[in-house]
Amino acid sequence: MSAAAESLAPSPATREYLAGEHLLLINGERVPAASGERIEVQDPATEEIIATVAGAGADDVDRAVTAARAALKGEWSTMTSYERARCILNFADEIEKNVSLIAEVEVMENGLPRMISEYTAVKFGAEFLRYYAGWATKIHGLTIPVSPMDARNGETLTYTRREPIGVVGAIIPWNAPLPMAILKLAPALATGCTIVLKPAELTPLTALLLVELAHKAGIPNGVINVVAGYGQSAGQALAEHPDVDKISFTGSTAVGKKIIEASTGNLKKVTLELGGKSPFVVFPDADLERVIPGAIRGAFFLQGQNCMASTRLFVHEDVFDTVVHGIAQGVGAMKLGPGLDPASMLGPLISGDQRDRVMAYIDAGKESGAELVAGGDALPGKGFFIKPTLFARTNMDMKIAREEIFGPVLCVQSFSDSDGLEGIAAEANKTIYGLSGSVWTKDISIAHKLAAMIDSGQVSINCHAAVDPAIPFGGNKQSGWGREFGMEGLEPYLKTKATTVLY
Ligand code: NAD
């Protein structure tokens, strides 16, 4: 193999992992799907099938839920919070020890650049787990001074216990396989829940590998179970299952609505992290040296397959041409290629279907009268690559500006002083979504006023999508229900029991 080809090939350890038999993980055992179904996993950079995985159906989901229910009453429930924290810390260490293998597997099935995969494996893998391991020993209730039934002071005691909510069904998308799995597992483990994890059918390998590492770290059998499978079968069965206490879902708004419907049978608790179409507002005094790379990163990170992507830029007319020109130059210099190539800055889209979907949006953009400034087409040959695409002079009546594309397409719209902050906020909020957003200016009054007026779960100032394990994250409007990350991210995994004694 030539040196160039060598740098693009996965390591022997990754090849060995991919060549292995990929089964479901139920009660600590690797088991085939009851139906014998297999799902093919494709490398989106080469279109080659890199592995097949057992595809779970309703029977397998039922077995996994039974195992999770039993584990809730087993060794896991008698462990001290210190021991539970130690297991989570061990899991984090396993991820760091195996970061190269994990990153290569994630790159092979998702297409993202390796450097990003390695970074997120540490920051939103190992460090995220460590953050929540810290919380495991700090979850407690209250004693409350009360007087039920006319009791006098000292005649009664009321205390609350924070109990694990129970069996959690976690359903995740394909756009960031490792972080998505860890964001669900970490708070569920910290609170003492047990989990049935359903990864996306396009990217099941990273989740299976991760949970093998969790077992190595000492997390008891049955605490985490993995049912790789299709959404309409395995996902639906998990969302409907009468013995699941909670669904934690990340994915599209359309499927989020189906999850709500499916969960009504036993009124299980639901949290939803859904789509986005985030605004990025640039005032004329902003530091354009930071704005331009920030806009490129914000829009094209993960090829734009990112729920927080800043896909709608609102730029003051005085700096509009400079910003558009700077972004066009920047994206023109971006190298597209397979994630294992260290020179690649952008990988492929996840699938042929996704490429075709995004190209249909680009065609709609071209027909809408928006000005195509950069990109606008797919790369010929193998792999689902689309050039980073920039449309200027867009407005909020255009489909490309209104709908979540989940691909490398950026819309830039101008504003002027006469719009005022109310006018800018109205345009920024003209969307069904409310996940992220950013304001770029040196004027702290404008920054904070507009940040308060943007209707989203997160707003960043002079940066975009500031994410950290300790910063609460989640969506307003149709971007979701509830919050993940930080202290608030524990709440959906806990229930409160109030106990009162009358002496
Ligand atoms: P998707 O909604 O199609 O699929 C998400 C998961 O749901 C997959 O595991 C899928 O198999 C499963 N699923 C599909 N149909 C189901 C059903 N009927 N019942 C139960 N499960 C079902 O989303 P996707 O295409 O995988 O991911 C892209 C979407 O995810 C985008 O809209 C993006 O914005 C969103 N997303 C949101 C966040 C966030 O934190 N808010 C993060 C990443 C991605």
Report on this model:
This protein is of the alpha/beta class and 503 residues long. It has two domains: 3-274 and 481-498, Aldehyde Dehydrogenase, Chain A, domain 1; 279-468, Aldehyde Dehydrogenase, Chain A, domain 2, CATH 3.40.309.10. The protein is 39% helix and 18% strand. It contains 17 helices and 20 strands. It has helices at residues 3-8, 12-19, 58-73, 75-78, 81-97, 99-110, 114-136, 177-191, 205-216, 231-240, 253-262, 288-300, 320-332, 352-367, 399-402, 420-428, 444-453; strands at 24-26, 29-31, 38-42, 49-54, 143-144, 156-164, 167-171, 194-198, 224-226, 246-250, 269-273, 279-282, 312-316, 371-374, 389-392, 409-415, 438-440, 460-461, 480-481, 494-502. The strands form five sheets. A seven-stranded mixed β-sheet has the order 14-15-16-13-12-17-18, with helices on both faces. The protein has a six-stranded mixed β-sheet with strand order 9-8-7-10-11-19, sandwiched between helices. The chain has a three-stranded antiparallel β-sheet with strand order 5-6-20, with no helix packed on it. Helix 3 runs parallel beside helix 10 and helix 6 crosses helix 7 (114-136). It starts with a helix and ends with a strand. The relative contact order is 0.13. The model has no long low-confidence stretch (mean pLDDT 97). The structure holds nicotinamide-adenine-dinucleotide. The site of nicotinamide-adenine-dinucleotide has 29 residues, from helix 10 and helix 11.
